[in-house]
Amino acid sequence: MDLRKKASAVAAAGALATTLIAGGLPASAQAASAPAADDSPITHEQNPRVPEGAAWTQAYFPSSDGSGVVLHADVLRPANLPPGAKTPVILSVGPYFAHAGQTGPEGWDQVGPSARFQDFIDGAGLMARGYTFVMVDLRGFGGSTGCLDWVGPGEQADVRAAIDWSASRPWSTGKVGMYGKSYDAVTGLVGNDLKRPSLKAVVAQEPVWNMYDYLFSNRVPRPNVTGTPLAYNSIATMPPMADDSDRYKAAAEYETSHPECLSDNLANNNNPAPNSAYWRARDLAAHARGTSTPLFVTQGFIEPNTKPEDAEKYLGNHHGRERGWLGQWEHVRGNDTDANGRLSQGRAGWFDEVMRFYDQYLRGVQPSVTDPAYAVEDSLGHWRAQRTWPVTTTSYEARLSAGRYVDDGGAPAPAASAANRGRWDMERAPRIEPLSGAEKNAAKRSDTAASSFWTWSTPASRTLRLTATPRITFEASTTGNVMVRLWDVAPDGTATMFDENVALLQRKGRISFDLKSTDWTFQRGHRLGVQIGTISSNGWLDVPSGHTVAVSGARLALAVLDARSDVPTQGDRSPYLDRYLAAYTTTLTDVGHGTFPLTVSRDR
What we know:
Layout: H1 27-30, E1 42-43, E2 54-62, E3 70-78, E4 87-94, H2 118-123, H3 126-129, E5 132-137, H4 153-168, E6 172-181, H5 183-194, E7 199-205, H6 212-215, E8 216-217, E9 220-221, H7 227-236, H8 246-252, H9 254-257, H10 260-268, H11 277-280, H12 284-287, E10 295-300, H13 311-317, E11 322-327, H14 350-363, E12 374-377, E13 383-386, E14 394-399, E15 403-406, H15 437-445, E16 452-457, E17 464-476, E18 480-489, E19 494-505, E20 509-514, E21 518-522, E22 527-533, E23 548-562, E24 567-568, H16 575-583, E25 585-587, E26 594-596
Parallel strand pairs: 4-5, 4-6, 6-7, 7-10, 10-11, 11-12, 16-26
Antiparallel strand pairs: 1-2, 2-3, 3-5, 8-9, 12-13, 13-24, 14-23, 15-23, 16-22, 17-20, 17-21, 17-23, 18-19, 18-22, 19-25
Helix pairs in contact: 4-5
């Protein structure tokens, strides 16, 4: 039975104005359904919200930090197995498992386990394969007590407790895997960082690798810096369902009687200092040093929500087995399809590949199919297999031209779309914001524009690829703001902006910062354009200084891969790539002389 249907009424508290795909049946069809219970297993035949082949129970257990926080879990066990039969456990921990809905009430007619990953449960055949699936509410959400903690020490303690609890159940083999996308992918990264011996594998789709990066870029706030904490406050205060147990209801209403939870979440997340104790505790990439849990990750290089920032740092600090799908998509799951039925990530076989991964590390079953360690889609929509990511042929620092710009915010840009006014959480992505007319005009004027200046490479002598994480370093003459953008410029002047980042210039002098990780292929004859100037995008909430900023001694660290070394693997062009190209492509009319090489040669 397909339960993934009804249009949701998203929380009036304002989590997000969007339509959720969830499930439910008319009240008339559910009148005889069994009520929720904390101990007696409920099957699909008794409650259609329970996946077919599963038996649902609920459980409570303490977090691991001694705070008194009690966590709630929904447990789905294979219904055909005896209660004590031991199985491996796949665990998901997050804020989206409330019985009423993921980010707001979804119009369910009776209580039941979240349908958030019913696509995975059904698509991978978890129950028939003999796996137990456990969903744990982070503190402050669903049926768990305590204050929400934005992936801080409290939530990290919750992840630890959830792993240990899942491994120690009498029906568990003691081997746990984690699964998630977005926030519950972040908790998978936390699980790896915790180095729990019972955690044997993590699948993390489109995570945030360092929580600071979701709200700030080098001290410049993003437009969701306030809206995202408010969105999670709204999720945390979602009312329970009428037929939830008294214990669940009391936990769900915790924030209502503890308003400091909400005010602290808002205030704490508005700290722009990346090296503060608050943000150091949430730098998952730094905490990954020396970890070794097998990881299977996905990451869209051009996605507008959980961007590829600090991804390379996390993977570089991780020393265990790795698998990955990396490419040119938005905030989607490996199995998602678009309105035309095309796979959103372009590559077939998500559930099959994931289950080979879990079977290998949770059951010791060697796969009969050899999957590539990394399957990577480049900006031309071509897929290749790699042993790791990134792989480079050469790396070097490009010397950029000196120049100056006025930090005036550029020409006034149109207001952000109603969907992008900062009120979103990690699960519900902002819509793509095309280059504004002002941004396109400033790019076309190139060196004649006061708000930015350019440096150009010489044309590529053959097809090559910029990969890994570019890094910019320069001397600034004064305080202000800076934006750095990278453009792929064709011989006819057609140019696509494919990478960017910003920073606050707190003082004059030297500054260095990373751009986003990328995997962008330059065809023969194309050039790299580097634009340095004021922040002219709606993607940040900067305060222009009005200063004229002189830039000198600029260097751009580049990693280059010779595309001739590609080993093809299966995969189609992800549909989002064409939407991105349409939004971020313009025509330049004044491309200057090339001053640095764009090459794979080690002799420059």
